[in-house]
Structure formats: C-alpha cells, structure tokens
## 1
Amino acid sequence: MRIFALLASTVLALASLTAASQTSATAKTPVKAVPAPRQMVAQTPPMGWNSWNFFAEKVDDKDIRDAADQLVATGMKDAGYVYVNIDDTWEGQRDANGVLHSNEKFPDMKALADYVHSKGLKIGIYSSPGPKTCAGYEGSLDHEALDAQLYAQWGIDYLKYDLCSFIPAVMEKQAPDDKAEQMRLMVAAYAKMDKALKASGRPIVFSLCQYGWDAVWEWAPSVGGNLWRTTGDISPNWDRIYAIASQQAGLEKYASPGHWNDPDMLEVGNGKLTLAENRSHFSLWAMFAAPLLAGNDLPNMKPEIKAILTNRDVIAIDQDRLGKQGTRVYSEGEVDVWKRPLAGGAVAIAVINAGDSRYATHPFHLSLNQLGLHGPQTGKDLWTGKPIKLSDGQPLELARHDVLLVRIDAPK
Ligand code: GLA
C-alpha cells in the first residue's frame, strides 16, 4: 500500500504543479454556485477526530473504539468533538452484487458504528470518486448509489470524498489536455455522490477533498459540499501549517453555516510542534471557522495538548453562530493580524508571530486603527484566560511562532 500511496502522491504532486495553469483554462467553465438544498448538517464547523494524521494506514477497529472512548473520557466530547472519522484503508472488496465490504481491520462496520453512536458520538467514513483511494483501496467509481446506501445502513454520519485516482483514471483519460472538461468531470463526480447521499435518506455531512483545485470554494456548495479542503495535505510542522494558514486569506467570503473552508485536519499534539505552535495552529483554525478534527493519538494525549484542544473560549470562536470566517487584516514583517466578527457585535483578534525569534519583530506595535477599532479596548486573552487591555500602537512581545488571541465583546 505504501507503493500505491507513493504513486498516488506523485500523481497528486505532478497534478498540483499544473493546478495553476488549470485556473485560467477552467475559469470560463459554467459551474453555477447555487447551494443545493441539504439536510441541516454542519451549521457550525464540524468538530471531532479523524484517524489519518496519526494512524495513517495503520488504523483499525480498536483504534476507532479507543478514540471514541477517549473523546468521552477526556471531556473532548463535552467540548464539542462529536465526529469519529475513519479515514482511508478501511475498504475491502466488492461482492458479486457490487456491495463493498470492509477489510479485516474492520470486521463489522455496523457494530463499530453502533458502538460509536452508543457513546453519543457520530461516525464518519472515507471514499474516493475514483476506482481507488489515495492509499490504493477500493473507491466508489460506478458504485456511488450502492456505497451511499451502505453508509446509510451502517449509520454513517459523515463522508470525506477524496479525488485521488479519479484524476488519472477518469479526468486525464477521458479528457487529455482539456482542463475545462477535466474540471467538469470532477464537479459531476462530486454531484453524483451528493445525489446518492441525499437519496440514501440519511443526513450525512459531505466533505470534499480535492486539495483546493479549481477554486472549489466557488462551486462546492452547488454539489452539496458542507466543507471543502482548500489546500494540499497538512503535516505536523510549522512551515506547512503556516503556509496553509496564509492560503486561507481571501477565502472568508465563501464560508457560511453549512459551508466551510477546510484547511485540513488538526495536527495539534502531533510531530514535534511546540506548545506555541500548537496554540497558534488551533487559534488560526478557530479564526478560520475551520472544521476542528483533531488528528492526534488520543489515548496518549498529554495534559497540555488536551488543554489546548479543549479551550472552550477558543472553541467558541470557531463555533460562533454568525459563521463568519476571519480576515487577515494586515501583516507587518513576520507578524500577521487576523480579525473575526462574532455574533452580538463581538470580535476576535489573533496576532501571530511567524518569525523564528522573539526579537526578530520586536517590538511589534499593534495598530487598532487598521483593525477598525477606535481607542483603548478591553478584552479577554483566550490563552491566559485573563482580561487584557489593548491600545493603539501598543508594543506586543510574542515568542517564536506564538499567538495572542483576544476576544473583545464590546469593541469600540
Ligand atoms: C489524501 C488526503 C488525506 C488522506 C489521504 C488518505 O492525501 O488529502 O487527508 O485522506 O489521502 O490516503
């Protein structure tokens, strides 16, 4: 499977090199951005856990049950994390009737779904519109209706639908050298699964994963997408997280209740991220109204990671009922300043030091004027939990890759 995964990622990497050139070719493609009616799911960004970032191809039934148990035991469920999402590598073979079976790692998917539901949680699954998934397992091509019915029978609540082999097997095969037609085929494939999910009669969150190609944010709602990946894959290192964060600027107008930009699943607690980096990553995702899908090893979660993932104030920013994504208001050197409007006239401000040293940008002076705020402001520092006063031009000292995240309930 590793070889499959490598091949798949090579294809994706090559294809992403041409993504920029696709933009102009596909800009004229008449895809109407009319949101399709969908069951009331994902009215706030979905929260939960997904197996890929930590377990990747090694995940099995026990890991999923453990994750469900831990969501409850750690208080994450109470903080809002409800989806337990199985990513790639659960798929087995199709039988003579075309019905897909899970593989030996997942002996009884219905029983697993029942278990997850018995904890008051929801369960998600993964597939591809292509013949194979990214890791080389069975995809849904030509079996969309059957698969959607199967998910509904199992009690699945969420589907991540990952483009992968659809690119070489369908787009490039059927429309070589015609990027506009390739895009049309891709959009049609997502629309087909949306129709199948709706026909299944079960409310299922529909998560598009095609790495942000062809301005997916413009057309995803028209194919029933509740969330759509805006970039390639995340990895647990600051440079990648910061690159993805920077690529969210300008996408805020596409987010609204039921329709979210997805900068990929969380790496909080993974790799060698420092606490500051974990805080900044989580803060930015909250500013983006991003889905909060933890991707760490829950049974071995350190208390300081749990404290970050369960910070209720930060989660409240993410889940704010207004559903407006934050904007990068300005950058100065290595410091970025983001602002997010919240329900009831409140605002959240995030100041990120992307620089490698505390002093590289020191002193950074916060411009309240540029943030549209007038005079001194009183708010809450969401990482210390203490009140904070901000004034125009105030010097801020931020450690390497750290964040100041402030909520102002009554901005002036
Ligand atoms: C792609 C996706 C990842 C993950 C893997 C699974 O790379 O972007 O999030 O789902 O496939 O193979």
## 2
Amino acid sequence: MNSSNSISPVNLTDLNTSNLPTHVAIIMDGNGRWAKKHRINRIQGHEKGSEAVREVVQTCREIGIRHLTLYAFSTENWQRPKKEVDALMVLLKRFLKSERKEMHEKNIRMSVIGQIERLPQDVRAELQKVMTLTKKNSALHLHLALSYGARAEIVRMAQVVSQKCKSGQIDPEAIDEQCVAEHLYTHGIPDPDLLIRTSGEMRISNFLLWQIAYTELYVTPTLWPDFGKDEFVHILKDYQSRDRRFGRV
Ligand code: IPE
Ligand code: IPE
Ligand code: MG
C-alpha cells in the first residue's frame, strides 16, 4: 500500500484548504520495528521517531491544521522494561528542550493530555515550561498524549462527575454527552476528524475511545520513523475524498 518509498512528492497546493481536518490525531507506532529493521536498538528507534514528530508538527503548522494530538506514551507503556521507559523520558525531555524556542516562534501552543502526575519530576518541569511559554499561541495547538489511556480518562471523568453530583453541583438527570465530554482531558478540543496509525496495526490501543466516535481512520504500513510530509499530505488528500455521513444519508 503506502510504503514510504512509493509516496510521490505532493504539492501542498493540491490540497483543498476549505476541507482540511480541524483535528488530526496520530498513533505514532513502529519505532521498535524500525530499529530492528536497521539492526539498531529500540532506543535508537525512538530517537529517530522524535525527528518524525518534528516534521509532522511543522507540516501541520504549514498547512494550517488547528489541532494535532500525538500519542507518545500510553498508560500501558509503563509496563515496558525500565530501561526503555527511562530512555523514552530522557528523549521526551530532550525533545521539549530543543523544540521549545521554535514552537514558540512558530506560534504553536503545546498542551498535554494524560496522567502527567506519573511522569518524572524533571519531565513535568520541562512540560510546564513549554506549556506556560506557549499558552497564548494560536496557530497550531499540539496536544501530547503522555501516560494517556482512554479508559483511565473515562474512569476519571466518572469520578469527577459523581463527586459533583454528590456535592450538588451537577444534577444526575442533567448528565448528557456534552457533560461527559466536558469532563475528559480533551474538554474544549473538537473531536479528531482524522486518526492516523502508522506501522500497520489495525487497533486503537486505548487511544481517545470516546472522542473518535465519528473520526475517519487511516492505517499506513509505514513505520513511524519513516513517516514524513509527503505521506501526510497524501493521507490528507485521501481524507478529502471521503464522504462523512455521521449516520445520515
Ligand atoms: C511507538 O513505537 C512508540 C511508543 C509506543 C512509545 P513502539 O515502541 O511501539 O514500536 P514497535 O511497535 O515495537 O515497533
Ligand atoms: C500505542 O502503541 C501507543 C503509542 C503509540 C504511544 P503500542 O505499541 O503501545 O500499542 P500496541 O501494544 O501495539 O497495541
Ligand atoms: Mg508499538
């Protein structure tokens, strides 16, 4: 299908700017397999993966996509070997440090969704720095899903909403879809229009379960470190050819 080698360079002007997804979400998978293919260790695969992150963020900024959510670390990923988890945290910190200035200059705002309290203190401090610096930026809003799991997010929503019912702030009868959405990490963010998963796995892996009810899905066999601008634009064009019916005719 769309292996990175078969993607021909595309012109941004081929895109219909009146039909761009407002929100793109990406499951960035395949760093380990990329490393194996190149006979290097998994950690070097993650390193290469962070370069692809940079390219996709800049491409969204260039095209004019308003929201980009990147699944960078799941609640289940804590179960990986400590060495790999530690290396991922080091890489994350390095990425935040190296990208901070440029993100701000390019008017990109960065936020986080997930259980940030589980992240190491030094990573949290770095995240806080970037979020504070960029909080008034308005071009692209980048949401990093870190220590994120959709089930944990839904459980947390249920706890908060029940507490509010108990204290009389919410009438249980008044709980509707909007109320649920407002108590998720993603409150105020439009649902993703397009979800891309790299490396060919046909699964969601606990990502944005509530929010992707009507999201268009695209799975590419390309391993995340090989994912780049040309393929991204190709996928956007595919998205633009789809008929989103939302259950209607
Ligand atoms: C995605 O790549 C990065 C994270 C989940 C942190 P993987 O590490 O899952 O790569 P594969 O799936 O083993 O190839
Ligand atoms: C999903 O990838 C999580 C991220 C990309 C951060 P995984 O590699 O963890 O998912 P599974 O294990 O293949 O379902
Ligand atoms: Mg994986």
## 3
Amino acid sequence: MKKHILVIPGDGIGPEVTTWGKAALEQIADAFGHEFSFDEALMGHASIEVNGNPLPDETLEKAKNSDAILFGAVGHAKYDNDPSLKVRPEQGLLKIRKELGLYANLRPILLFDELLNASSIKPSILKGTDILFFRELTGDVYFGEKTRSEDRNTASDLMIYHKYEVERIAHKAYQAAMQRSKRLCSVDKANVLESSRLWRETVQEIAKLYPEVETEHMFIDNAAMQLIKDPKRFDVVLTANLFGDILTDEASQIAGSMGMLASASVGDGTGFFEPIHGSAHDITGKNLANPLASILSAALMLEIGFGLKEEAKVIIDAVDQVLKEGFRTNDIADGSTNPYKVLGTQEMGKLVLKFISQKVITQNS
Ligand code: IPM
Ligand code: MN
C-alpha cells in the first residue's frame, strides 16, 4: 500500500512523542512492504514563532494533500497565563479540524491489564472496561459565536448544533456500536439546554434506524459520575464537543494515564491521528513523556485510516508486551514497578520498535 503521511509535531512534548509514532509507522511499512512517504509541517506555538500564524496555509495545503496526519500536541504556558493574547496555538488545531471536516473524534479507552494498578480507581471496578467515545468535533461552544462587551465585563460563547451535525456523528457511532456489543449511550444535558434537546431528539430518530442497538440517554453530570463508579456499563458513548472533551480526560484515568490514549479524528477527508494528551510543558525536553499514546495513534491510523488491521495489531501487541515485561514510563509507574524498568521517552520508544520487529519476524516464520 502506498500512502503519504503528514507529521505535525506541534509544541511541548509533541515532537518528542511523535518521533516514535512516526518510527513505528516506518517500521511497519518496512516489515509489511508498504510504501509510506512522510512530510512535516508547523502548527501551534511552533508556527506562531516562525510566521505569526498557528496554522499557515502551507500546513493546511499539505494536510489536504496527504492520506493521513500524525499530530503531536499544541499549547504553551505563556498563553495559559495570559488570556488576553489574541493569537493562540489552539486556534491552529481548531481550524484544521474545521477545514478538514473532522467532525468525529474517536477516543478508545484501551485498558491494558498490566496497568490496572496504575489507575486511581480500584482494579475490580476497572477490569473488563472497553469504551469507545465518539466526541463531536466541529460544532458546539468551540465554534459558536463568541462575544465580549465593550467594557469587557461580559462574555459569551454560543452553544450551537445543527441537526445534520448530530445526524452524521450519530450514524458513525451507531455503525461502530453494530460492530461492537450493540450498546450506545448518548450523553447530553437535555434537562437544561435547548441544543441538547435537539441532540437527544435527533439521536432518538437515528436510533430507530439501528433497532438492534440498545440506546441509553444520560445527562452529562450523571455520566461523569457513572464513568468512575461503574465504567463497564459503557460501550459506545456518543457526545458533543465540550462534554466529550471533559469526559475523555476523565476516562483517561481508567487507562491509567493520559499518556496512554490515542485518538482518531475522521470525517469528510483526510484522517487526523493524535494522542489525547496536551503539550505538557512541565516535562518538555526532559525525556519523561510517554510515547505510547503517539505509537498507539499510529496504530489507529493503520486501522481506521488505512484499514490495515493486522499491522495495527502488531503495534498494539508490542505495547502490550512492553507492559507485560514490566517496563513503564514515569506516568504509568506505581509503587510495585521495578525502578530499573522505569524508562525515558526514547528508551520506551526503542523498546516498542524492537518488539514490533520481533513480532513481525515470528509472524512470518
Ligand atoms: C483536545 C484538546 C483540545 C480540545 C485543545 C488543545 C483545543 O484538549 O484535543 O482534547 O479542547 O479539543
Ligand atoms: Mn481535551
């Protein structure tokens, strides 16, 4: 298979971790005889520094002309502490999502058994959890009109949804539910918000087209609680942009760490694959970041972007083996971890690559 992949490392730990996601793709291409070509582009603070723009046209052009995008993270402490700055790294990410029509953000909560103890939730509650979030990604307060009064003392963000936006992501979530355990929970705040009432009505309509799927509707506040109380009750979770942003950070604790979770944003064209974690300025450049979310994002690219299931599985199995053998990055180490097996970003990346190549050799022999 021939594919052209754009790598956008971005800011903070983005470049450190994306190196390993890309290396995993190169190794898979080698092993399975695929031809993957790569290009690189700027986004976020890294791009603002060079040309004052978090998403230059050149990056957008390259993105549109690629078959998939591997992204790192955007953000910088300087902006977090100064809300008055008008040009912000995150604008680049939001714009590329909109421009590429990436309306569905898939966030699988992939729980490796070896990490049951890394979570702050009891292993008995966690074991067997397998959730796939569908977060709407190009609507909601993220893209609604923003206002600020002249005296600067009043501000608003419009929470807005159009029916077609709910329909298209609902279809994607139901199609996934059909392939899984045929359970779907749609999360909203329909007891208060009109946009959520539209959301619920629309999901109820789409549900009729998938009669085999058992649909549940839940309010966001209750969902946030149930997710910690009994995560196993969820399978496919369908929700809006802001609710999904918050719920999936919460759900990352089920997997042990934000450093473990990958995501796929898909829609009209080129798919976009990225860790759910951010730029993590506090650990940038210290060889402390967990590269597994980027490596698992590469696996999602192979599976969802290119339909290469076997190749994706090799990567997931290699990550599983690393964990089974007791190796950890700092974020997923716990009291029982052998201190000699706590690895830096680079050492962890190299080890996964080694296991990928071993798995391919065993498969082919
Ligand atoms: C995410 C991030 C982004 C979001 C930020 C960086 C704009 O938190 O991908 O979850 O809020 O969508
Ligand atoms: Mn987020």
## 4
Amino acid sequence: MARNVVFSGIQPTGGIHIGNYFGAIKQWVTGQDDAENIFCLVDMHALTVPQDPAALRAQILETATVLLAAGIDPAKSRLFVQSDVREHGELTWYLSCVGSMGQLNRMTQFKEKSESQKGEVRVGLFTYPLLMAADILLYKTTHVPVGEDQKQHIELTRDLAQRFNATYGEVFVLPEPAIPKAGARIMGLDDPTVKMSKSAPGSYHAVRVLDSPDQIKKTVMSAQTDSGRDIRVDPARPGVTNLLAIYCAATGATPEEAEAHFASARGYGDLKKELVEILVETLRPLRERNAELSADPSTVRDILRRSAEAITPIARETVDAAKRAMGVGSG
Ligand code: AMP
Ligand code: TRP
C-alpha cells in the first residue's frame, strides 16, 4: 500500500500557543513514523495582513526553531519555508482559474479576518485558501493534521481537486483533514468565547509554548471562569469547559475521566493549579530544547534549505502535470 503523505502548515507570525500545539503540532510530532511528513512555514500566507519585514524574517527562524524543539525530526520530516519553493505561487494561479468567487465567499475565516482589518482588505486575504490548496495538492498529500478552524479550507481543497480532475483528468490526490479528538479548538483564557489566537491583544489571552513557568501560572490562574464550582463540561460555562479541554488535550483523558478526576475538587482553583503544573511539565522539554537550538541558527537554516531542495522536484512534477492537463506551456 502506498504510504500516507502528511502535509501541514503554520504561519510564522510568532507567539505559538497551546492551541497551535494541541490542535496541530503535537499530532505532527507523534505521527512522524507513520507517513512521509512535510511541514511548511507559510510565510506567503502571513503576507495577507500587514507585516514588518524584519520581524517576519526573524519569526520565520523562530518558528522553525520552536517546531524542531517540539520534536519535528529532520531525519523523518521535511520542514521548509513556503516562499522557498516557487511552485506554491505558480499552482495557486492555476487553481484560481478553477475555483469560483462563490466558493471563496463562503469561507468563514475570510469573513472573520476581513472584519478585523482596520485598513484595506488585501486581495491575498480573499485568495488565501487557494494558496493553501496549492500547498496541500503539490505534494499529493493524503492527510492534513490541523485544528478545527481549518476544516473548511480542506473541504475547499478537496472540491478544487475534484473539479480540476473532472475537467482536465486525474492530476490531484484528494486530501483528508486529520483533526484531533481533544484540543482541536482551544479558546482564549481571558475570553473563552473567542478562539485562542496569536494576534489577540492582552497578556493573559494565551499560554505561549515558550512562556516561563511563572507566566504560565499567571495566565492560567487569571483565566476567566464563572461563579460556579462544579468542574463539568457545560456549553453554558465556556471558561471551565475550555480549561477541561486543555486538561484533556495535555493528559489524554476523556472528558468523562476529567470530570471524575475533579469530582471532589473544592472549586475552579484546584483545576487551575493542577493545569499549571501539567502545562509547565508538558512544555518544559520544548522550552529547554528551544534555548539550545536558538544558539545555533545556521543549523536551523540548513534544515530549511535542504528540505526545500528535497521536495522541490515533487512540487515541480505536480505543476507540470497540471499545466499539461490544462493545455498551457510550449509543450
Ligand atoms: P495558525 O496559527 O493560524 O498558523 O495555525 C496553525 C495551526 O494551529 C492550524 O492547524 C490551526 O488549525 C491550529 N490552531 C490555531 N489556533 C488554534 C486553537 N485556538 N485551537 C486549536 N488549534 C488551533
Ligand atoms: N491556513 C492555515 C492556518 O492559518 C495554515 C496553512 C497554510 C496550512 N497552508 C496549509 C495548514 C496547508 C495545513 C495545510 O492555520
């Protein structure tokens, strides 16, 4: 049987948090032995909203370092920067001539992100899902491990691939989303009604994977909860439900097991204190390894460059097949 190909991406926009970790990165790390793995720092996606060039450049390296520190193993996985492989932009154009405005108009992430843009909304923010589809389709990806928020984009990728194959012949493999049971949608600790995000203001919004034990403690202890005491999963009480979701993602417990574990707790304080300890210990190896790797940026750059070189022929082959199928090029 052909081996699975796992592809996923993350924006190198700094401040990787436990939503990214439990929703995506943890699965990338644990699945490495079972498939061909390609992980991408999607710097072209980051440009869909304003970025400072110097900061972006630094964050590409920082994000790569965090992923390696989290356990992405260059012997088992490719880790590269999107704009280093030109075929991503190239295939996006061909997909833009297959997809429709109506399809893109239905993307909820565009609606949310465009509303939060104070100035103009850039065209790239609208066509963002086509670039993401290109990322995935270039490598004949079978599985895409992501958090819940990306599901709609993967469905669009499948639709585009199907449309293309039906019109021009079989070129693309249809990918499946791989969404974790626990941790697929971690909410903000300062406001459990909004998704935890890298760009939200407020120092107590997110636990970042590189936070010190003291910062983790401050953020978790100040997490917004209601005035109840029962530690139960309850949609009417999003604060405690979110803390339990984080507990489950970190420990592997089911929601029922988590509720049973805290049945005799005296209140939310007990849950928060235990969560602080668990998060500090879960993230400790990552933080320590990150400190070591940060001292050696040339090794990290080398991994990024070698990965891009190794995968470019696969991307080239796919774009050439798409071009041939569409009838463009000098032949
Ligand atoms: P991004 O930070 O948008 O580049 O996201 C990188 C990965 O983290 C994607 O797979 C997202 O689905 C996942 N992710 C982002 N935010 C969250 C969250 N709050 N909960 C769970 N997964 C998330
Ligand atoms: N859109 C994803 C996010 O914001 C990042 C991403 C870009 C991605 N290309 C991808 C994820 C391809 C999976 C596969 O989180």
